Amino acid sequence: MKHKPLPIGVDDFKRLVDNEYYFIDKTLMIKELLENKETVNLFTRPRRFGKTTLLSTVRMFFDPRYADHPEYFDKLRVWQDERSRSMFGSTPVISTSFGGCKGIDYKQSIRGMMGQLDTMYAHHEYLLDSPRLTEEDKETFKETRWGLFHNDTGHIENSIKKLCELLYKHFGVKPIVLIDEYDTPLIEAYTDGYWDEMITTCRQLFHNTLKENDYLGRAIITGVTKVSKNSLFSDLNNLLVA
Fold first, then answer.
1. Is the pLDDT of residue 226 over 50?
2. 154 class by beta-carbon count within 10 Å (0-12 exposed, 13-18 middle, 19+ buried)
3. Which of 27, 68, 148, 185 could form a disulfide with 101 if both were Cys (CB 3.0 to 4.6 A apart)?
């Protein structure tokens, strides 16, 4: 019997399958996600728990760009559930990570955040060719990405919300938003003394994305920090903490 290699340092689901790495099938989490009623799901777990791999798996399962590749899932547990299987490749996905948003001051850390948001937009550049988007919509996309690329902090707070709307117009389906390591910039800010600036930016970003957003389908957020009543998510009434 051929022994599969261990995926040391690999947290991307596609790479796990393509390279036939050994991994634990946690795809029934997708079934659980579809069954619960909450719009926003927050998973707080220790580091190295597999949170990034989980989000990568969810992204690839729902993203319409993988709809013609059921071979990535047809041998896994989620494929045995009829409802889950019917949702494969059906929903646009916005995915970003704040794990690299680190710095000795606000300026350096927020530059890392804008870099991640710019990359998020780059993954959806096909929208610029969409016949369902107006020229004004496309200008919104280009202006937001230009601002993020050039470190204009004024584009952060509505960046994900705007992309949700554009994806909805293109696909006709409200997107899923995945945010990995949401708390890294806050932990860095608390440690290095720029908490007030960072919490203000993050609170507005998450408020606009997760609460004041008519185009949000679902969201999954991961981090290591347990939330409190006065936390970043204190005004959300659609949050499940697991």
1. yes
2. exposed
3. 185
